[in-house]
Amino acid sequence: xxxxxxxxxxxxxxxAAGAAVALARSAVYRFLSLAFCPPAxxxxxxxxxxxxxxxxxxxxxxxxDGGGVAAEDLLRVLQDADGAALRAGYHHVFGHQASAxxxxxxTPYVAAEIFQQxxxxxDIAGFYRAFGLEAAEDAGERADHIGLxxxxxxxxAYREAYALVHHGPAEVALLREAQRAFLRDxxxxxxxxxxxxxxxxxxxxxxxxxxxxAAWVTREAAAFGLPPAExxxxxxxxxxxxxxxxxxxxxxxxxxxxxxxxxxxxx
Length: 267
Prior knowledge:
The chain is 59% helix and 1% strand.
């Protein structure tokens, strides 16, 4: 997506087990970020990121402290997809502007009042600024768009990989705490709810994508030692649709079927 501008992205890291895990995690976030943006007619860039996703998940399965989320269904659909058809599917699920019942923005899921929404947006923007990032002028999206939030987590994981090789433990600890806090306060709270809404609208590529995103952020939250998120009081304010107070792990598990589960392959 590259909608967040970083004036000084670090150079590639050298071989190190921890750095390799962080780089693989960054690749997963990058694919998810790009895939939640309106698709181009030419899907070559998205397919290239999909190949990187597959390699990253394979690497995480082999890591001593990591796992992998099976994405075979998603990547198979992507390989055979037509750009125009995928774009039509995107607009069907998420709308041309902002979907009332399936928004790609965090605040409708977690803040019903205007004041609360403003505070929430300011908190997200504050995370970005703390690490020298801001939404690019041509991004055309609010700070709480899922693509920007996922891209931010990918940037932090990338910086963690660099810090594991080139900086001391203090820098690594700072980056990991930032990732933990952003998952706790943002992505882990609402992405599983988004996946549930998407599942009500489609069975295609975006159902697979949303299931994968929900399973991934739930896996990440657990890896950072976070308890299940509390969903009490969460409402889809934009549409006035109340969502049950269920934790993300339960919702991700509910997406599994006998034939397919987004958590298959998790070690």
